[in-house]
Amino acid sequence: MKQSLYFIPTTKEIPNDAEAISHQLLIRGGFIRQEIGGVFMYLPLAYRSLQRIEKIIEEEMDKISCPEMLMPVILPASLWQKSGRYENYGPELFKLQDRAKRDLILGPTHEESFADLIRGIWNSYKDFPKTLYQIQTKFRDELRPRFGLLRNKEFIMLDGYSFGATDSDLDYSYDQFDSAFRKIFDRTGLNYISVVADNGAMGGRESTEFQAVAAIGEDDVAYVGENGVGANIEVAVGIPPFQIEEQKEDRKEMEKVATPDVKTVSDVANFFKVPAYKIVKSIVYFSDDQPVLVVAPGDHEINENKLQNGLSAKSIRLATPEEVKDILGVSIGSVGPVDVKGKIKIVMDLTVNYLHNFYVGANTDGFHYQNVNCDRDFVADEQFDLIQINEGDLDPKSNQPYKIEQSIEIGHIFKLGTFYSEGLGATFLDQDGNEKPIIMGSYGIGVSRLLSAIVEQNNDQNGIIWPKTVTPFDVHIIEINNKDDEIVKLSEKLEKELESAGYSVLLDDRKARPGVKFAESDLIGFPLRVVVGKKAQDGIVEIKERRTGQVEELKVSEVVDFVRDYYSK
C-alpha cells in the first residue's frame, strides 16, 4: 500500500477536550476524527485495527461454537416496554418515531430483541444450551461524552447471549464466554483484571467485568496480588484495618462536648485528637421519597451503589441542608444518630459495630457526643455493608490488602436469569412438559473502546506502539529519497516480497523530508520500520523495532526472515 495514496491526516493540533493520551494520539495520528460530541469517524488506520480486533473475536467465538449474526439498530419500543426498560433505562436511551408515529429506539443493547427472536424457535429443554452474538454499532445518549472513544454516544460493541433450560446450562455458557473473552484480551495485548461487578440496569444475579488498567480510566477496581481477581469499587467488600486493630475497651459514659466551628470529619478528629475512623459520620439521604440517616466510619466514603441496593430503592439522593434542618432541626455538621428515633430511619454500616467510645454529632449546632457506643446509645433500624473500600482495607477471602487502580471497562458478562425471557414470553417445555422461562446470559465487549484501551497502555513520548496482533500494518517501509531510482526499486521490491509472505505493508513514498517521515512513523506506531536509504545500492536496509527502539542493518535477502521471526514470537 502506497502512503502517498493513503489517507492519514496527521496533525500537531490537540483538541482542547482531549484529556486522555489515547484521544490525543488517535487524533494526532490520523486514526479518528470527531463528527459531533461523542460521535467519531474511524479513518482507514483505525478501521484496519478494528477489523483485526473483530477477526480475533470471530476466531475465539468460533472456538466456542457461538454463531455470529446481525440485528437491526432501529428497534420497536414495544419490546422494551415489555421488559420495563423503556421507562427505566433513563435519558441515555435514544427514542424516536417513524412517519407512522410508531415509537422506536436506537439500540444500546439487544437483550429484548434476542429473547424475542428465539421465542417459539427453541422451545424444548433438548434445544439448550445455545448461544448467539453480533458486532454492531450501539447508541447511548451520554450526558458528558469524554476521553475520545471511551465514553461515546455511538460505539461498536460485541454483544453475545446465551440461552439455557437450567442453571447448569447458564454456568456452562458463562464459563465459555469468560474463557473466550480472556483469550481475546490476551491476543490484543491488553493488561487487564477481572473483577466482580454490579449488574446495574441489566439485572440478573452475577456479573464479571474485565478492566484494563489505565490512568485515565473512569472506573476504580480493587484487587489483591499482581493482576489478581478483585472487584469494582462499586461492589468491593473490605475489612478496614480498625476492625482488626481497634481494641475493645470498657464503655465510657457518653458526654456532650461543645465543638464550636467544628463540622467536618477532619475538624472533629483534630479537635478530639483521635483517628478519623473514630468519628462516626451521619449523613441524611432520601431513599426514593423517604429520609434515612446513614451512619458510617469517618475515614470511608458512603458507597451510594451499595446504599441503593441495600435499601432496594429506585433512587437515592443527598438531602439538602434545608431538608436536614426541617427533619432534624440541626445543621449538617452536627447531625448524629442519638435521640432521633421516630424522626428518621437509621441505616448503619456493619463496621461501626467494631468501634468503641466513638464520636458523633449531638444534633445540636456546635456540639458533639464522645464515648458513644452502638446498641446502648442508639439502635440502627438496618445494618449492611455500605462503605466504599479504601486502599489497604483487607480482602475478606485472602486477608491481603487491596490495591486500587483506575481502569477502563473493556468487557462485562452477566448471568441474567429469566428477567428478559419472562418479559418477552420466551419459554420452553421441561422434561415433565412444564412451561418455564428460558435462562439467559449476556456478554459484551466494547470493540471500539478497545482501541483507546490499547493505546492507553501502549505509547511513549513519540506516539503509539501497536501490539503485533492489532497493528494497522505489520511493516512500515520508508523511502529516504523517492528521486533515487535504487531506493525506489528496492523499496518496491521489499514491499512485494513482504506482502507475498503474508504481511501488510505501508510504503512511505511521499515527497517529504526524512525527519517528517520518521516522526510520523513513530506517531502511528507500527511494530517494524524498514528504512531504505543511502546503502540501498549495496542491498542494505535498516530495520527498527518500535517498542524496543532496537535498530539493525540487514541485507535485503534477510528482511522477510527477520519479519517472519519477529511475528512468530
TrEMBL record:
<dbReference type="Pfam" id="PF04073">
    <property type="entry name" value="tRNA_edit"/>
</dbReference>
<dbReference type="InterPro" id="IPR023717">
    <property type="entry name" value="Pro-tRNA-Synthase_IIa_type1"/>
</dbReference>
<dbReference type="GO" id="GO:0005829">
    <property type="term" value="C:cytosol"/>
</dbReference>
<dbReference type="Pfam" id="PF03129">
    <property type="entry name" value="HGTP_anticodon"/>
</dbReference>
<feature type="domain" description="Aminoacyl-transfer RNA synthetases class-II family profile">
    <location>
        <begin position="51"/>
        <end position="467"/>
    </location>
</feature>
<comment type="similarity">
    <text>Belongs to the class-II aminoacyl-tRNA synthetase family. ProS type 1 subfamily.</text>
</comment>
<keyword id="KW-0030">Aminoacyl-tRNA synthetase</keyword>
<dbReference type="InterPro" id="IPR002316">
    <property type="entry name" value="Pro-tRNA-ligase_IIa"/>
</dbReference>
<dbReference type="InterPro" id="IPR050062">
    <property type="entry name" value="Pro-tRNA_synthetase"/>
</dbReference>
<dbReference type="GO" id="GO:0016740">
    <property type="term" value="F:transferase activity"/>
</dbReference>
<protein>
    <recommendedName>
        <fullName>Proline--tRNA ligase</fullName>
        <ecNumber>6.1.1.15</ecNumber>
    </recommendedName>
</protein>
<keyword id="KW-0547">Nucleotide-binding</keyword>
<keyword id="KW-0067">ATP-binding</keyword>
<dbReference type="GO" id="GO:0004827">
    <property type="term" value="F:proline-tRNA ligase activity"/>
</dbReference>
<dbReference type="GO" id="GO:0140096">
    <property type="term" value="F:catalytic activity, acting on a protein"/>
</dbReference>
<dbReference type="InterPro" id="IPR036754">
    <property type="entry name" value="YbaK/aa-tRNA-synt-asso_dom_sf"/>
</dbReference>
<dbReference type="InterPro" id="IPR004500">
    <property type="entry name" value="Pro-tRNA-synth_IIa_bac-type"/>
</dbReference>
<dbReference type="GO" id="GO:0002161">
    <property type="term" value="F:aminoacyl-tRNA deacylase activity"/>
</dbReference>
<dbReference type="InterPro" id="IPR004154">
    <property type="entry name" value="Anticodon-bd"/>
</dbReference>
<dbReference type="InterPro" id="IPR033730">
    <property type="entry name" value="ProRS_core_prok"/>
</dbReference>
<dbReference type="GO" id="GO:0006433">
    <property type="term" value="P:prolyl-tRNA aminoacylation"/>
</dbReference>
<dbReference type="InterPro" id="IPR044140">
    <property type="entry name" value="ProRS_anticodon_short"/>
</dbReference>
<keyword id="KW-0436">Ligase</keyword>
<comment type="subunit">
    <text>Homodimer.</text>
</comment>
<dbReference type="InterPro" id="IPR045864">
    <property type="entry name" value="aa-tRNA-synth_II/BPL/LPL"/>
</dbReference>
<dbReference type="InterPro" id="IPR006195">
    <property type="entry name" value="aa-tRNA-synth_II"/>
</dbReference>
<dbReference type="Pfam" id="PF00587">
    <property type="entry name" value="tRNA-synt_2b"/>
</dbReference>
<keyword id="KW-0963">Cytoplasm</keyword>
<dbReference type="InterPro" id="IPR007214">
    <property type="entry name" value="YbaK/aa-tRNA-synth-assoc-dom"/>
</dbReference>
<comment type="function">
    <text>Catalyzes the attachment of proline to tRNA(Pro) in a two-step reaction: proline is first activated by ATP to form Pro-AMP and then transferred to the acceptor end of tRNA(Pro). As ProRS can inadvertently accommodate and process non-cognate amino acids such as alanine and cysteine, to avoid such errors it has two additional distinct editing activities against alanine. One activity is designated as 'pretransfer' editing and involves the tRNA(Pro)-independent hydrolysis of activated Ala-AMP.</text>
</comment>
<keyword id="KW-0648">Protein biosynthesis</keyword>
<dbReference type="InterPro" id="IPR002314">
    <property type="entry name" value="aa-tRNA-synt_IIb"/>
</dbReference>
<dbReference type="GO" id="GO:0005524">
    <property type="term" value="F:ATP binding"/>
</dbReference>
<dbReference type="InterPro" id="IPR036621">
    <property type="entry name" value="Anticodon-bd_dom_sf"/>
</dbReference>
